[in-house]
From TrEMBL:
The lineage of its organism: Bacteria, Pseudomonadati, Pseudomonadota, Alphaproteobacteria, Hyphomicrobiales. It comes from Aquamicrobium soli. It comes from the Bacteria. This is DUF1403 family protein. Pfam families: DUF1403.
């Protein structure tokens, strides 16, 4: 990333003094750079999107007064039996993962939106979902800033809060740019209201008492930071995936190629995951070998129920 772009990201103190055109230029450059990464369609893109979803879910859970951090959310997703309740914070992670794994063509459809709202903890409301779906179609034809700001305003107007607004804005951005899958971007920015980091970085979209220009400037600054953070995460995962792919030919375990693909496509997997032709013991040995080779990390820090990922 060019150094000028990182230096240009406005903080709380400088945001008010900057012209909206300058902030728009920086935001456009950051999103353009992010778009270039997305269009490379890297093999590790699935893990990238899920890591961004985990970060967004952790901020969302904290804002909702939950105590679960990223490690606890990961446990909820991976160690809960199929069909069991993952808890309120775990459902927030499912919502952000839905954004990262569903085709952008289906993201903003009424049925999917209804499921997302329930995962964020809102009671089903078919009328509100129908109205919101129609408003999103209208916003999709607007300019970029109006579209993203409108998504956040609409969510709060219907009583769904800023977490849902960030989710909708990310979905609209992905559709506008023609991405196959959305990236969870604004969730870790817009949802941070009230935290010390948010007050320092002014990532939160302006309150309704602010004028439209201030609101747009705040949103574009948040979008810039989110894009840069996603690019940094992509660089990190790219290096780690290169190491995994470099050692993959050395693996002799049955179905090791499937394990490699699972690691590239997911935030993390557990040694008890069912991989064709591999026993739990064989899978644990393979993970131990990958850790020894520096190709993956053990993420839980536990002696049992261990979790592995890039």
């Amino acid at each position: 990333m060019p150094a000028w772009l990182r230096r240009a990201v406005a903080d709380a103190q400088s945001l008010a003094s900057k012209d909206i055109e300058d902030i728009a230029l920086v935001a456009g450059a950051a999103v353009g750079a992010l778009d270039a990464v997305v269009r490379r369609q890297e093999r590790w893109a699935g893990a990238w999107r899920q890591r961004l979803a985990l970060a967004a879910a952790a901020v969302t859970a904290k804002q909702a007064g939950r105590v679960e951090d990223e490690a606890a959310l990961r446990d909820a997703a991976l160690l809960t039996k199929a069909g069991d309740d993952v808890g309120p914070a775990g459902r927030m992670l499912l919502a952000w993962r839905r954004l990262a794994t569903r085709s952008t063509e289906d993201l903003l459809a009424g049925k999917n939106l209804g499921a997302v709202l329930e995962e964020f903890g809102y009671a089903p409301d078919d009328e509100a979902v129908s109205d919101l779906t129609g408003e999103l179609r209208r916003l999709a034809a607007c300019g970029m800033v109006e579209m993203l700001t409108g998504a956040l305003i609409a969510a709060e107007r219907y009583g769904f809060g800023r977490a849902v607004g960030a989710w909708l804005a990310d979905g609209l951005l992905a559709q506008r740019l023609g991405w196959a899958y959305a990236l969870p971007l604004l969730g870790a920015e817009v949802n941070a209201a009230g935290s010390g980091r948010a007050r320092r970085s002014a990532t939160v979209v302006a309150a309704s008492s602010e004028d439209g220009t201030a609101q747009s400037k705040s949103l574009m600054a948040a979008q810039t930071r989110a894009a840069l953070r996603a690019i940094d995460r992509a660089v990190e995962l790219g290096r780690r995936s290169e190491r995994l792919l470099a050692v993959a030919p050395k693996l002799r375990a049955q179905s090791s190629d499937l394990v490699v693909e699972r690691l590239l496509s997911n935030d993390a997997i557990v040694a008890s995951d069912k991989v064709a032709g591999m026993s739990d013991r064989g899978l644990r040995r393979l993970f131990d070998r990958l850790v020894e080779l520096g190709a993956v990390r053990e993420l839980s820090g536990r002696p049992t129920f261990r979790i592995y990922g890039l």
